[in-house]
Amino acid sequence: MTTAELTNSVIVTDYKAKTEGSAKLFERATKVLPSGITHDARYLDPYSIHVGRAMGPLKWDVDGNEYVDYFCGHGAMLLGHSHPAVVEAVKRQMDLGTHYGASHELEVRWAELVCELIPCAEKVRFTASGTEASHMAIRLARAYTGKEKIVRFKGHFHGWHDHVAPGAISHYDGTTTPGVPQSVTDLTILTPTDDVSNIVQLIERHDDIAAVMFEPSGASWGQVPLPPGFVQAVRDVTTKKGVVMLMDEVITGFRWSVGGAQKALGVTPDLCILGKIVAGGLPGGAVAGSAAIINRIDHAASAAKNHERIAHPGTYNANPLSAAAAVTALSLVRDEKLAEKANRTAAELRSALRQVLIEESVPWGVYGESSVFLIYPNPWNDPIDPATFDPLKIPFEKLKGASNVNPLRGKIRMSLMSHGVDFFTPGGFVSAAHGAPEIERTVYAFRRTLRKLKAEGEVKSA
């Protein structure tokens, strides 16, 4: 967005008028933080909001503005913000200690819950984040198979470590990103997901593949959906070839269903990685799966098989505060069917947003699965009927690139925020705390945003 567009836009002017406190904090932040932020997804030009508190489906910024929140802690807050039972569990643990440097009962119960709920989980190893889980899972797969190559798919995000950075949000041609040696990138076989038969043939003709790694939602929590039959085809060919099937359930775990996408799809991987919801919204991640693979970390099992054991330290592995939140949250997800509730609300929201596009004659698309929704803003102005929009008919380059090349991205979010709604562009996550009042507010904000964009000449009716 150019300086002139920022200056002349009523949308931007309204946003800035309502967020003066955030502007002041941003000015301070730029002096000590790159771009004034601590996560790339929080970047917004001219500046992002600074939040002071959150509860249920809502959050409030430092200026006192209230928002229906669809960031949901980057997908971690399936229960909504500050769930009373989770808050009480963490407060109770604070009085008992925040870091023992020793094993504790909560980590055992946490592991038992993961193994109870996740179909592939015979054993589990906790980490401090989803990225760490991703790194460990790849190491386990390589040690177990004795192979080096990892098959990954364009646009699928598995954290920010060296082995998965290229091809996730850029460099889809297989070249490497700054700071990552090309020799590391070359250990990945990067391929699109659109032709399942080609993927099967690729895996069949290679004998150096340790694992096939993917998001079961499709790239970036479903921004680029997988074609029908993809997951089962990968399961079949990896079983045939003795390749580890590694399912990234950092977002889908406990959200697609109580047992994650693998339970919802009825396809069990060899390994999965978990994050976000697995730690009850606090920092934490996990690798879960086949005991034969995860036991490469086990002292006795490695000695018995005369394997060199994979070392795995980690100061904050199974931290007591995260464990307290996790045990409470996962028990609630299981007992109160919270994934199902969020899924129903998200389906209602997608339908309502789609109806707004139809009524406003805006050629965009609304789609998504489970408890997520995605907006395709059609920056290329292709002829699209929102009533029949099918993301599988849109090329990868357009689906994945829509939110990046679209100059309206910032304006859309700022206008929505001016009307009390915050999307995680290009869509968002729905929690079990969202309901009819939040849908009503969101529909109003979305309609007002489209009309403002029309008034500024940014969007034209179909």
Keyword list:
13% strand, 462 residues, 4-stranded mixed β-sheet, Aspartate Aminotransferase, domain 1, 7-stranded mixed β-sheet, Aspartate Aminotransferase, domain 2, 18 helices, alpha/beta
Q: What does this protein structure show overall?
A:
- The structure is a single chain.
- The chain has two domains: 3-81 and 338-455, Aspartate Aminotransferase, domain 1 (Alpha-Beta Complex); 84-335, Aspartate Aminotransferase, domain 2 (3-Layer(aba) Sandwich).
- It is 42% helix and 13% strand.
- The protein has helices at residues 3-8, 10-18, 20-29, 84-96, 105-117, 130-145, 182-185, 196-205, 219-222, 230-241, 260-265, 291-294, 299-304, 320-335, 338-360, 396-405, 409-418, 436-455, and strands at residues 51-55, 58-61, 66-69, 123-127, 149-153, 188-191, 209-214, 244-248, 271-275, 285-289, 365-367, 372-376, 421-422, 427-429.
- Strands 4-10-9-8-7-5-6 form a seven-stranded mixed beta sheet, sandwiched between helices. A four-stranded mixed beta sheet has the order 1-2-3-13.
